[in-house]
Design a protein that fits this description.
Layout lengths: L2 E5 L2 E8 L6 E5 L12 H7 L3 E5 L20 H15 L6 E6 L1 H12 L4 E7 L4 H10 L4 H4 L1 H5 L5 H19 L4 H11 L2 H14 L14 E6 L7 H6 L8 E6 L6 H4 L1 H15 L1
Parallel strand pairs: 3-4, 3-5, 5-6, 6-7, 7-8
Antiparallel strand pairs: 1-2, 2-4
Length: about 280
């Protein structure tokens, strides 16, 4: 059952599990997904003694959905600030917490860890490499990274949102099915993202950023887990392996053999196992 988390920006829809006083783990979904990306991890985290929070982020939550024509409301600094407010709403104000991200949620998590190191106990990211590693791979076109990222350019086209949702979201369903996301999970994601209002707000993240390769992020000192599926069509090996160069603290790279971009949907057991091992190593 979803929770409503109130912040200065409005009310976020979220899933919350685990004891109120337990160490906080904030899980950030990617595009075109939702809080349901973490449906298998939340109960496991709670059972392991953590308080797990998985919000629908800005634009995905109806209660925090500024007009997407105002792109300043969807800039990376605002997305990072949302996570800090959510953590303060669900744990001790100003206290460090664990952050986990996938895809665009991973981009936010990297930025958060680099810009607010005092708030991060540990970092775990699925799929999305460190932004500097991604930028270098994109600029040098390692492993065909420019072609792998061609969809980022399409998201700037005003026609993209309506196309994804046309015919009962036929194209969006096909994209998610190709990522081996189960049918019931696709329906849950569409409950969040299946309206024109939600889709345009989600696409505003890309439009506000310009390109993901343009976002500048420094090295991260927090204990870090990076999980990359070696069948990921959107992230090549060059960007994945170069991520190690941008973590100065303890670092673990997990290569998920045969898995694609959505590791937690394709293999929730692996996603859960490596995350719990990471959190235990930090604790």
């Amino acid at each position: 059952m979803s929770e409503s988390i109130e912040t200065s920006q409005g009310i976020f829809t979220a899933e919350l599990a685990g004891p109120a006083q337990a160490p906080l783990v904030v899980l950030l979904h990617g595009f075109p997904l939702s809080r349901h990306s973490w449906r298998a991890l939340l109960p496991a985290l709670a059972a392991a003694g953590y308080r797990a929070l998985a919000p629908d982020q800005r634009g995905y939550s109806p209660g925090v959905r500024p007009d997407p024509r105002g792109l300043e409301s969807y800039g990376i600094a605002r997305l990072v600030a949302d996570v800090l407010e959510l953590a303060d709403a669900c744990g001790p104000i100003g206290a460090p917490f664990h952050v986990v991200g996938h895809d665009w949620g991973g981009q936010v998590a990297w930025c958060l860890a680099a810009r607010h190191p005092e708030r991060i106990r540990s970092l775990a990211v699925y799929s999305r490499p460190h932004p500097a590693a991604f930028r270098a791979a994109y600029q040098e076109n390692r492993d065909g990274q420019q072609e792998r990222s061609r969809h980022h350019r399409a998201f700037h086209d005003p026609a993209t949102g309506p196309l994804l949702l046309a015919d009962g979201a036929r194209r969006l369903r096909a994209i998610l099915a190709r990522e081996k996301i189960p049918g019931d999970a696709i329906e849950r994601h569409l409950e969040v993202l299946g309206s024109a209002e939600a889709m345009e707000a989600a696409l505003a993240w890309y439009r506000a950023a310009g390109t993901l390769a343009a976002i500048s992020v420094g090295a991260v000192a927090a204990p870090t887990l990076y999980v990359w599926g070696d069948a990921d069509s959107t992230v090549g090996a060059g960007a994945a392996h170069a991520t190690a160069d941008w973590v100065t603290g303890p670092y673990r790279f997990e290569r998920a053999a045969g898995l694609g971009h959505c590791v937690s949907d394709q293999d929730p057991e692996l996603a859960t196992r490596v995350l719990l091992a990471h959190l235990r190593s930090v604790s």
